[in-house]
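Q: What structure does this chain adopt?
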Amino acid sequence: MKLITAIIREVQLERVREALIEAEITRITVSRVSGHGRQRIEEVYRGQKVVPDLIPKIKIEIAVNDPFVGITVDTILRSARTNGAEGHVGDGKIFITPLEDCIRIRTGERGGGAI
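A:
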């Protein structure tokens, strides 16, 4: 089992969500987060150029069994990129971490079946 965490642009959320559903990955958690990396956005506020410290992003978390890791990652990569196949600075990141256990609260079921 793995936990896939993707940080993407806010505007790409609907596109990524639809692509995941099309790939039959329907159980996701979405959070609004802020952060910064190499992406720089300049905004004009009261006539002054301002570079905000934190940029709003979307964090998607998906717990999957091992056979679904590749499908999930490929779907996110394909649908979250802006500017076609090349992508753009600020498109986001995907993190894959081992998931020790999963427990369904309603039934107490554990492991891959609970996902």
